[in-house]
Amino acid sequence: MPKKTWADLSPTQKKLVVVAGVIEAAATTWCVRDLAGRPSSQVRGPKLLWGPALSVQPFGPIAYVLWGRRR
């Protein structure tokens, strides 16, 4: 099966891809800002490792929200 290109996608599929990208960018931005403003005592693990982990999409931001922040 040949790989699909952007031109092969339907208008609905294109909109879904764009919306998913915007949500992913917003979530990552929020996580980076939260990490920067949160004291180290409120973060599980070293803050220096969470920064690069947030670039692993979409797992980094999800992991940070679920496991990286202390309540």
UniProtKB/TrEMBL annotation:
Instruction: Tell me where in or outside the cell this protein is found.
Output: Cell membrane
Report what the protein is called. Cardiolipin synthase N-terminal domain-containing protein
Q: Which GO terms describe its cellular component?
A: plasma membrane
User: What region holds the Cardiolipin synthase N-terminal domain?
Assistant: 27-69
Q: How does it sit in the membrane?
A: Multi-pass membrane protein
Q: InterPro entries, alphabetically? A: CLS_N (IPR027379)
Where this protein primarily resides, as one coarse class?
membrane
Keywords, alphabetical: Cell membrane, Membrane, Transmembrane, Transmembrane helix
List each coiled-coil range.
none
